[in-house]
Amino acid sequence: MSGPGAAGGHDEGEPHVVRAAGALCWDHATARGGRPAGLQVLLVHRPRYDDWSWPKGKLEPGEGFVEAAVREVAEETGLRVRLGRDLPTARYRLDDTSTKEVAYWAAHVPGALTPKPPRPREVDVLEWVSTDEADRRLTRRGDRVQLAALLAAHAEASLDTWPLLVLCHGHARPKSVWGHADAERPLVKVGLRQAEALATLLEAWAPERVVSSPWERCLQTVGPFVRASGSMLKTKNRLSEDGHRRDPAKVAALVTKLLGKNRPVVLCTHRPVLSTVLGTLAGHTGAGLTAAVPAADPFLLPGEVLVAHVSSRSGRIVRVERHLPGGGVDPASVNIDAG
């Protein structure tokens, strides 16, 4: 899936779209004796409407769906979640002039934690229930669509996943106007804004490590996230343009190694290297998913993130998402000539 854009206005005469995002928090349920007993999910009760629903909320100005999903879950439940695979987006009419669009993701909460609701006037009760109970209790019938998708993913062993994030560095100074070593070519102002916005976007998947080309434009791209999150940064010369040119097989070997680690990670590199990185990922996709991995130049836009959700059981990629950072950057205005 390509990630939805940031919240925005609407032209006069066009239907008004209220954009929101949330997550289905889930955990493995256990029966007496510690035996597995399916899944349990977290429902929230909103006193204003006296309804039971998934934690969710509206996007703030300039905010993307991904960032809003994490923020809203935290505000309504007190949980700081790591997003898993995407779930079906809900679309429904609010009144004669407006509709609502809610993007959802799955989010595993080990131990089924239940903090005290931070904002009891908005959400006064949190309750973990079985999926059967959730099906009975959900007030809005349409919310069962996401529940059905969650259960289907669980049945297919594609719900329990971890993310491998492929990041193309932000918009850099063009080679034609840079008179120094290519390894030192920096980001321009747009690229620096992308890097700042990426710090929030990447946190939605809480990667523990960043593996990057050592060239300046890649280090500038991941720098804000590394500093904000404290994630470990490791540079690999093979992810630079020169390293890839010398031996693409080493890049493929690195991607394969990362796929076997079973640990959330960001890989940041250059446009010419993406052909090998994404080609290797395509070879590890599940049935019918290969076409979701870009196979043609430019592969990804500057600052764009491809999220490969890897099954913890099979080691295969089971879902693919693509997202651009916020920060007011218009993708159409970005020159993709620079590698």
Structural class: alpha/beta
Uncertain spans = 1-11, 327-338
| Number of strand segments | 13
Q: Quick check: average pLDDT?
A: 91
Query: What is the terminal separation in angstroms?
Result: 24 Å
Please, how many helices?
8
Describe this structure in words.
With 339 residues, this protein is an alpha/beta fold. Strands 1, 2, 3, 4, 5, 6 and 7 form a seven-stranded mixed beta sheet that branches. Strand 12 and strand 13 form a beta hairpin. Helix 4 packs parallel to helix 5. It starts with 15 loop residues before the first strand and ends in a 16-residue tail after the last strand. The N terminus and C terminus are likely disordered.
Lay out the secondary structure:
Elements: E1 16-30, E2 36-46, E3 51-53, E4 56-58, H1 65-77, E5 86-93, E6 98-108, E7 125-130, H2 131-137, H3 144-155, E8 161-168, H4 189-203, E9 209-212, H5 216-229, E10 232-235, H6 241-246, H7 248-259, E11 265-269, H8 271-282, E12 305-311, E13 317-323
Helix pairs in contact: 4-5, 7-8
Brief characterization of the structure:
Helices cover 27% and strands 27% of the residues. It is of the alpha/beta class.
Which structural traits does this protein have?
339 residues, alpha/beta, 13 strands
